[in-house]
Design a protein that fits this description.
Chain A: It comes from Rhabdonatronobacter sediminivivens. The structure holds two protein chains of two kinds. By secondary structure, chain A is of the alpha+beta class. Chain A contains 20 helices and 27 strands. The radius of gyration of chain A is 27 Å and the shape is globular. Chain B has two domains: 74 residues, Beta-grasp domain (Ubiquitin-like (UB roll)); 70 residues, Orthogonal Bundle (DNA polymerase, domain 1). Chain B is 38% helix and 13% strand. In chain B, the strands form two sheets. Chain B has a three-stranded antiparallel beta sheet. Chain B is globular. The chains are: A alpha+beta, B alpha+beta. The interface between A and B is large, with 67 and 63 residues. Bound molecules: FE2/S2 (inorganic) cluster (FES) (2 copies).
């Protein structure tokens, strides 16, 4: 097959890389804190300027830092660029950034951190070392994934070393040119400074520096940092407030056509037959294309395409899922009768402790399916020309998307050029590649025509990869004011097993840690502590929803802890602290901080507080939510968050992510649920899948601690404690327990 | 029958069905993609534009019914010349994913045009139709107060 040169800049880059990149990158890889020694190839080969390693292109005055993670709002491009800029000594205003191409060079070394069957907080030194070795496996597999709140952890050393190595290489070239020792040179604002006042801009040194082996300098002590540790102006901010930031749905190309989908409303179903004529009769509609599990309509504009898609007459062949949400929950409950999938925690003898106890509790909880509901519906733009596919889309896993698009278009991944755009929200949804698949299919059906696909909100809502619905059966016992037994069983579909099968075509077996995270790995000292997971045999498409298993499991864990505290006659916050203080100090400290911030125990007249905690993605996070009753309905008035992600690289971004995570979690807890009737998703658009808005969002305070010796993530840990803190506040205010979400089923909420 | 609209000071004559929502005219026919699609049913505010200074959901406004000049985010301010509201947004680092923000900013512009010093209740009343899935509301609220102060000093 021939590869088109036209419109495939990155295709050319990849080939030239072998010539230009090889030397520079061998140096880049020599930054070898990694166990696997084989160098990663530098995928960069800019048309002008020089690349010193996979993270840097210097072209005259322009310093471009490659930020190869998905920017979905979490500010990651800014923090990643700052890591390189800090060591490189460039002015922040000089820095440009580029997501870069899909490449194994940008593997996520921290992704495998979550792979060990051990609670994060309890990881020993050797386990962290092992996780790093597993990170090397991620390198070998070339997993370029944004998820699991891992991006900063992964990049922390790698990208600072990239900056430091480049700086020293530039100095070495300057030293030769000026005939002085490297040690006499300084760097500042993108220039090498000689003792006599001579200034050599990096742009004049870069081409030569790129041909040299890269030195391996020591990293600067954080006390010397100028950029890291401060709230920097985000690199994407001006573009985003002027409407110039480009999302997957904004790509403009000559001859562009717009597309919409009509997908099978029954999960797992397909098209049995259809009549395209009503769609073709819509003014502006040009093509109707069979996609097997749906139909694509291509038109002059998106409105015409959506109208056409709606007008189609289709016979659907249904999948074999249960019809209703009730039948689905029955299926989930059946999992408890099957063999367990995991027992990630099994301390002491809970059976005995519970039967011996004078005060035992046995309760059932339920969490619904949830949709990501990103603000930007799924979208992608694709163009097939002379056998080469160019694709523009926001995505959380470029290499997976590249491969999926190749399969859809019947070409090889090398024949796909992927441009990763900004994302109007990800939250895990854009790790899935359905939209890439459909855009590639449409483009392949219409070679030479650029196709911009936008899901209608209704199609987006009906075709989510949902947070699984789950049931938890909790048993426990208290004695002398303490929990003596905690026994949890949880049943839900496995996100990991389903997603791995979807993404790799391989079935994965074995215990699924993600299924029970948030339950088995919490830092409470309880002598009889058991957590068992059961996988539901239910093929509703499920995916990585913000915080994944922690999102439902923290609700189960922390509501039940509250019930145990109540049974023990203890204050819920003091009860938690009593079990945590000796188990994990940073966790206890966030609880203490949130107690102080919220003036715990003294809510204003007529209001009540609830507390919850979750250690997720390496970051212990505690929240207090305050609730009031106003004119017969409940209103969330204030919320406090204390978290400890270890060393903080950008406090402004951490704060924004914590607020964001809390609001996302509260929104879901109050109104979020996806239900099924007659085999179809019932929710269609924001009016029936709403979220908190300006008038219902509480006043939020955030405190960031830095006692944690390990760096944790920040994009997700704000979400898990939100639902249980709110549910516990509802109990404090009304005396009624919430054991099923969303809360709006049981209470009238002001949203 | 062609329909005439004036957007950001430029007059266009468009040969499209009159019921085509202004949103898609802007995005797909005129290439003004700063106006976003979120729901298509006037429930999220992502598509908010100004018509004669009034905040309007472009997804629910048929082309034939556009009654006056339209201002989109592209006509409101540029990276080189930010409008005061946009500058306040930057000071407060308000955007996360950014997708809702053009709509939020134009909604706030209409609010400040009518009420130069809104209190929290007025901000709630004006802004609650604009959804933000990233939860940037606290920063948006602060940016509106800040912009109001900056604009009244100017
Ligand atoms: S797209 Fe117009 S209000 Fe949502
Ligand atoms: S910033 Fe992402 S939806 Fe508002």
């Amino acid at each position: 097959m021939t590869k088109s040169k036209k419109g495939s800049k990155l295709g050319r880059i990849t080939r030239r890389t072998l010539l230009v990149g090889a030397v520079a990158v061998a140096g880049g890889a020599a930054f070898g804190i990694w166990q696997v020694r084989r160098p990663v190839d530098n995928p960069l080969a800019p048309e002008s300027g020089a690349t010193l390693n996979p993270y840097l292109i210097i072209d005259g005055d322009a310093i471009t830092i490659i930020t190869p993670r998905a920017e979905m709002g979490q500010g990651i491009h800014t923090t990643l660029a700052a890591l390189v800029a800090e060591e490189l000594d460039v002015d922040w205003a000089q820095v440009r950034h580029w997501h870069g191409p899909p490449s194994a060079a940008y593997y996520n070394g921290a992704l495998m951190h979550g792979a060990l069957p051990v609670a994060d907080y309890a990881m020993k030194g050797w386990q962290i070392a092992l996780a790093e070795t597993l990170g090397a496996a991620s390198k070998v597999l070339g997993l370029q994934v944004t998820g699991g709140s891992t991006s900063t952890v992964d990049a922390y050393e790698r990208m600072r070393l990239a900056g430091a190595g480049a700086r020293e290489a530039l100095k070495a070239v300057a030293a030769d040119r000026l005939g002085v020792e490297v040690a006499q040179l300084r760097t500042e604002a993108g220039q090498v400074l000689a003792p006599d006042g001579t200034k050599l801009p990096y742009g004049e040194l870069a081409a030569e520096a790129a041909t040299r082996p890269v030195p391996q300098p020591a990293l600067r002590d954080p006390s010397q940092w100028r950029l890291l540790g401060r709230s920097l102006p985000r690199l994407d901010m001006v573009a985003k407030v002027t409407g110039t930031a480009e999302f997957g749905t904004d790509i403009k190309l000559p001859g562009l056509h717009c597309a919409a989908l009509r997908l099978c409303p029954y999960p797992g179903g397909r098209v049995a037959g259809f009549n395209p004529d009503p769609a073709l009769a819509v003014p502006g509609v040009a093509h109707v294309i069979d996609l097997e599990d749906g139909i694509g309509v291509v038109a002059r504009n998106t409105w015409a395409a959506m109208q056409g898609a709606q007008a189609l007459e289709v016979d659907w062949q249904r999948g074999d899922l249960p019809d209703s949400i009730e039948a689905m929950f029955d299926r989930i409950a059946e999992a408890f009768d099957d063999r367990r999938n995991s027992r990630m925690r099994n301390d002491g003898d809970p059976e005995r402790a519970i039967s011996d106890a004078s005060e035992a509790l046995e309760l059932e909880y339920r969490a619904p399916f949830l949709h990501h509901a990103t603000m930007e519906p799924m979208s992608a733009t694709a163009l097939l020309e002379e056998g080469h596919l160019t694709l523009w889309c926001g995505n959380q896993a470029p290499r997976l998307h590249q491969e999926r698009a190749a399969r859809a278009a019947g070409i090889t991944p090398e024949e796909v050029t992927l441009h990763s755009t900004y994302m109007g929200g990800g939250f895990g949804r854009r790790a899935e590649s359905d939209f890439t698949h459909y855009a590639a299919k449409l483009a392949a059906a219409l070679p030479g025509t650029p196709i911009r696909l936008t899901y209608s909100r209704e199609e987006d809502m009906a075709h989510g990869f949902l947070r699984p619905a789950a049931i938890a059966r909790m048993r426990g016992a208290v004695a002398d004011g303490r929990a003596v037994a905690f026994d949890a069983q949880v049943a839900a579909s496995s996100v990991s097993h389903q997603a791995i099968a979807r993404m790799t075509g391989r079935r994965m077996g074995g215990p699924d840690k993600g299924h029970v995270e948030g339950l088995f790995d919490q830092p409470y000292a309880i002598p009889n502590y058991r957590v068992r997971g059961y996988l539901a045999d239910l093929d509703v498409p499920v995916g990585f929803w913000r915080a994944v298993g922690n999102s439902q499991n923290a609700f189960f864990h922390e509501c039940f802890i509250d019930e145990l505290a109540h049974a023990a006659g203890a204050d819920p916050l003091a009860f938690r602290l009593a079990h945590m203080r000796d188990e994990h100090a940073p966790s206890a400290q966030v609880l203490e901080a949130v107690a102080e911030m919220s003036d715990w125990g003294n809510p204003p007249e007529g209001r009540a507080q609830g507390v919850a905690f979750c250690h997720s993605f390496g970051t212990p996070t505690a929240q207090v939510v305050e609730l009031a009753r106003e004119n017969g309905s409940l209103r969330i008035t204030r919320a406090w968050i204390a978290c400890d992600p270890g060393r903080v690289l950008d406090p402004g971004i951490v704060r924004a992510q914590m607020e964001s995570g809390l609001i996302y979690g509260l929104s879901a807890a109050v109104t979020g649920q996806i239900t099924f009737a007659d085999g179809m998703v019932e929710q269609r658009n924001f009016p029936d899948y709403d979220a908190l808005r300006m008038d219902s969002v509480p006043e939020i305070s955030v405190r960031i601690l830095e006692n944690n010796p390990h760096m944790g993530g920040v994009g997700e840990p704000g979400t898990p404690p939100a639902a249980p803190a709110l549910a516990n506040a509802v109990f404090a205010l009304t005396g009624e327990r919430v054991r099923t979400l969303p809360l709006s089923l049981q209470f009238d909420f002001r949203v | 029958m062609p329909h005439d609209v004036t957007v950001n000071g430029t007059r266009h004559s468009l040969d499209l069905p009159g019921e085509t929502p202004l949103l898609w005219v802007l995005r797909d026919e005129l290439g003004l993609t700063g106006t976003k699609y979120g729901c298509g049913v006037a429930a999220c505010g992502a598509c908010t534009v100004l018509v004669a200074g009034e905040a309007v959901r472009a997804c629910a406004l048929p082309l034939a019914d556009v009654w006056d000049e339209v201002t989109t985010i592209e006509g409101f301010g540029t990276p080189e010349a930010l409008a005061p509201l946009q500058a306040a947004w930057v000071r407060h680092q308000a955007a996360q994913c950014g997708y809702c923000q053009p709509g939020q900013i134009l909604q706030a512009a209409a609010l400040l045009a009518e009420n130069p010093t809104p209190d929290d209740a007025a901000i709630n009343a004006a802004m609650s139709g604009n959804l933000c899935r990233c939860g940037t509301y606290p920063a948006i609220r602060a940016a509106i107060h800040d912009a109001a102060a900056a604009m009244s000093e100017a």
